[in-house]
Design goal:
This protein has about 140 residues and is α/β, with parallel strands linked by helices. The protein has a single domain, classed as Rossmann fold (3-Layer(aba) Sandwich). Helices cover about 50% and strands about 10% of the residues. A five-stranded parallel sheet has the order 3-2-1-4-5. The longest helix has 15 residues, at about 40-55. The radius of gyration is 14 Å and the shape is globular. The termini are close together. About 25% of the residues are buried.
Length: about 140
């Protein structure tokens, strides 16, 4: 089973539109086609960003919390170590990078691959949503 860490921007895109690759990734996650690896820190980021970005667009808090509750039903929880030394261009991405490296996932899926330089994430394949969908299609 493919294991992945998903950047917050994928879920934000999926909740904004049902037409793109991000929405298809969420659909495939719900169908059990891959395993989302998640930490408490990353989940807290998901909640903070989704509420900040979606509530002004009319999403009620209850809908965002329901989405996160449903998401948590199909994840592998991982507890990263307390030690972390990597430095990324966007410090908000540090928790995602630490989770990806320490949990030894297959892919980190993001719209912002430039935030995850390959020379700092040697053991992780950073891919965009369309590439990840191609990988999922070829793995089944």
């Amino acid at each position: 089973m493919i294991r992945a860490v998903i950047d917050t921007n994928i879920f934000l895109s999926a909740l904004r539109s049902q037409d793109g690759a991000s929405f298809q990734i969420v659909d495939r996650l719900e169908r059990g086609e891959f395993t989302l690896v998640l930490s408490q820190t990353v989940l807290a980021e998901y909640e903070e960003v989704l509420k900040r970005e979606l509530m002004p667009l009319g999403y009620p808090v209850s809908a965002i919390e329901l989405f996160l509750d449903d998401l948590c039903r199909c994840v592998e929880i991982f507890r990263p170590s307390g030690f972390w030394k990597i430095a990324l261009p966007d410090t908000d991405d540090e928790a995602l990078a630490q989770l990806a490296i320490e949990s030894k996932i297959d892919y980190l899926v993001t719209h912002n691959s430039r935030h995850f330089p390959a020379d700092r994430l040697l053991s992780v394949q950073v891919v965009d949503p369309k590439t990840f969908l191609d990988i999922l299609r070829h793995s089944t």
